[in-house]
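cron nightly-structures :: item 1 of 1
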Amino acid sequence: MDPNALWLLALSIATPVAGVVGFAIQLRQVRKARLENEKLALEIAALKLAAASHDQRIQRVTTDEVLRFGNDDVRFSRGRGPNPGPDYCAPSSPLGNAAGALVVALVLLIVGYAIYDIYRLVRWVANAL
């Protein structure tokens, strides 16, 4: 056999072998990633369970409970409990009122400027004729 035929034979065998080896390596990495995902899912489930048991020990204080124990000087609003009721009105913030007024003023400014532009356009057309 001549050397060219040996090289051709070696290459024809090496290419499929390399493909099989590469596929086996990728398959191993996929299995490893799947096991890592399962491990992380179990860790997340354990953390959620721990957080749920931790939240059961902490109780949120409501304004009604504070008033029940005789503290009439309630400065900050706490939650009203699980169901505030139909007559409960959420406190409004002064920043929300100022932002609403600013939006109204901005809309009025834009509308006024649009009316002024229409007036200038009509005047320009009248002068052009």
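cron nightly-structures :: done
Residues 61 and 78 are 7 Å apart (CA to CA).
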